[in-house]
ATP-dependent RNA helicase (Rhizophagus irregularis), 754 residues
Amino acid sequence: MDGSNNLILNLVTENSSDNERASLRSKLKNIGGGWKEKKKFRKFLKKEIQNNSTDKHKFFQKSTTTIAVNNNNSIQENNLNSQKNLINKSQIISSIFSYNPEIPNVRYDNNSKQMDHKPSNAPIDDTSSFKSMGLDNDLVENMKNKLGVEKPTNIQSKAIPILMSSINKNVEFDVIVQSETGSGKTLTYLLPIVHRLINITIDIQNNGLLSRSIGTLAIILTPTRELAIQVVSVLKYLINIPPSKFTSRHLNHWIVIGNVIGGEKKQSEKARLRKGINILVCTPGRLLDHLQNTKSFLVKNLCWLILDEADRLLELGFEETLQSIIKILDEKTINSETKNQIFSSSKFWPKRRQIILCSATLKDDVKRLAGYTLFNPIFIGGNDDFSFIEEKSEKNAKFNTPNQLKQSYIITPAKLRLVTLTAILKSTFKQIRNLMNRKIIVFVSCCDSVDFHFDLFMNAGKINELDDENSDDDKLKNNDQSISTIIPAKIFRLHGDLTQNVRTEIFNEFSRSNSGILFCTDVAARGLDLPDVAEIIQYDPPTDLKDYVHRVGRTARLGKEGEAILFILPSEIEYINVLKSQEIFAEPVRVETLLKSLATQNKRNKNEYEVVATDIQLNFERYVLSNSKRTTLAQKAYSSHIRAYATHVSTEKHIFHVKKLHLGHIAKSFGLREAPSNVNNNLVSSKKLDNKNDHKKEKIFNKEKKNSYDDQKNIKKRNFEIMNEFSVGNYGSMIGPTTKRKRKGNRISKKLSM
Ligand SMILES: Nc1ncnc2c1ncn2[C@@H]1O[C@H](COP(=O)(O)OP(=O)(O)OP(=O)(O)O)[C@@H](O)[C@H]1O
């Protein structure tokens, strides 16, 4: 091979015959360089031959793999010599089509049960209307004009009348709302609140005592800042009601809305709270901070506490914060004897504080909260009649995904992951005109992986322009909304490690955009209403089944069509049964089908897909290895990915276990030709530990989890601004401390830097 001083293409396959071995040996003669290189290669060859005869893995690929490295211009291996920064050691390029594990047998014909594709989260097509639920005429008109909302959805038609019923009947209760993603839960809880506040204004308009200084009347808690920002923007539309068309009444109300989510100076948040925010949207950490430290934050008149994405708010890391919040609110509201008598004279004023929990995935954990906090709780489901929580059988609780959502999965050996992802993205954006009409979200497991894939798809197509070590220093920083050099599409990225300003900017930009690919972590999985997302790619499976439901729920919203595809490794096939047990049915797609489409797009015969895919993979690898910064980025992503893999919920550990991973193959999916050795060593030893004593490891893990939970109790150590983010798998966490004290210190500093 030209320029092969640093590159050896590994074409050995399972059935290597003696002849093939002999031919490999003959390659030795062709290897350039001195005796050292030859010795190294001889050693490698010996090992390879040994491996071939003893390898326990099953391989599904053919016995020979032909790759036209030298003849294919697009590979441009010749240029490697000119790249002075290429990692300065011998590189073994293993073929992505050899040594892959066998792909389990699944039926590729349409074998799932015939599904009802009638949209399940669309506005309902009958005579029900918002007016008939008793909502204010001006509010309904305003909603129609500004949000285009005319007919209620299933959950709205069930829940809004119940949330309004206490106005006349004088009965009070807390409410749990569970319905599919994209079914309009936000309006479900906002409309009754806004309706009541408007009517309280009208009821007691002229007594001169109404002003924002009454303090906070409704608190809406969300797990992420983006969701909080989104809720505030919906509220803005609802609250700004133009002069009435129906009556001569004036709706110059005093209702002030706002958020405190961190990301701005605490002093300015304090100042806004002092003036009074009547409907406050916030993230838990920040709210607790203000409840504890902002004396002028008035909550004694609080009437509503909404937990949006309640199950997420009740998860480890949030739960304790939530309990502290509710405890303080109890002290300051229920026990408060200074309730404003004037307001309570209006029939629209709730007799007691109401808690409303909302999510598409509410289960047992909510009942736990219900057990000791909720008052007379009522469960309202999109597909069920309402019931009191005691009557709701836990066993029946299934997570519904929208009927019209087309779900599929692809069993991809680790080495083929990157090219398969490229194939999907390329086929989606194959024609330039599609640039204007397709939005895709790609979920990966950690922030470092988002950064890596963002950079790779942004820049790897122009590798030849980037052969200077310093030429692309700031690429990652500056190119947040630019066109990919691999796919004709804009690329975006979103994760919890970005600054709040950047996050908000990207979130808004992707929302407004007609087209693009967003690489993100689960920070974008919950609640975000990003318009017209056509497809969700779960490149890394979610670590919790609930996240599956929320991730795929970013498409197929409000009756619209949508597609979702899940990548799994051959060893993870059991996960499909887990999905089935939740009545989530996905159709299998063949890797070869996608790779063949890649070949035809590249104007090659579809049977040449191995050549084309290898081309693309080699180009990625060249890009990753051509600059130390890019290599480090890939290594960090690889390490964090493995780390994140270990965080799958315990009930799925038998499917997703680090010890099942082939680390070298995983490295390949990060454009690396071998697994980074430092990380590898850590993981290999942890694999050994796994095998030796899984129980012991679990114990250690649980203890660490508990300790990290304890750290959060310490208010001084808690970083309120970020504890609400899903910032999994930082590279920092891979650099293991050596002593106990260091380990503790590291845990705390990790928390502070997340
Ligand atoms: N009745 C309606 N008619 C038309 N549009 C609606 C209606 N109700 C809500 N919408 C719109 O539907 C979209 C989805 O609503 P929303 O975000 O509240 O869904 P959700 O159920 O909270 O989803 P998720 O579980 O993902 O958070 C929003 O853009 C909202 O404005």
